[in-house]
Amino acid sequence: MIKLDVLEKMSTEEKYKYMLILLEGQLSSEKDIYANISNASAIIYAVMDKLNWSGFYFMRNGELVLGPFQGKPACNRIKVGNGVCGTAVSTKETQRIANVHEFPGHIACDSASNSEIVIPLVKNDVVYGVLDIDSPVLNRFTELEEKYLTKFVEKLNNYINWENL
Ligand code: SME
């Protein structure tokens, strides 16, 4: 069982380090990809405060399709180049958006979202999908969040063969 009560006494950076330990524990003890990515989205949602959505979209026949997530029901499909997620795919670069209402083409799945970070899942130059995290707080995601979420995705990449999804 994942132990979360210890989070209360931790600083923000300690929480993010613990988030990576929880992910390592999950990935090293379970082989099933869907169990792993489902709990990966739940670990982020449980550890990071002030979030309203965290989850995955995966490339299926040239577009992003919704994967495991935590939060309100979301858009099923996003075209490459559209919204924050589709832009992360077309640029192969993390999108850290302080105010989503100023992002041209932002797709509002939950009207509570005000800021967002999207990290593409890139392995050997191929984009397999994105990790998408939303917050109701403007400018929620700083360089610190980007640093640890990037490490989080690197760890997923080390363990998961996205081609088997
Ligand atoms: N806001 C995203 C859409 C996905 S939801 O946030 C879950 C976007 O603009 O791509």
From TrEMBL:
InterPro entries attached to this UniProt entry: GAF, GAF-like_dom_sf, Phosphatase_reg/MetRdx
Q: Which superkingdom, per the lineage? A: Bacteria
Family annotation (Gene3D superfamilies): 3.30.450.40
Span of domain GAF = 52-157
- Family indicated by similarity: Belongs to the free Met sulfoxide reductase family.
The name under which this protein is listed is: GAF domain-containing protein
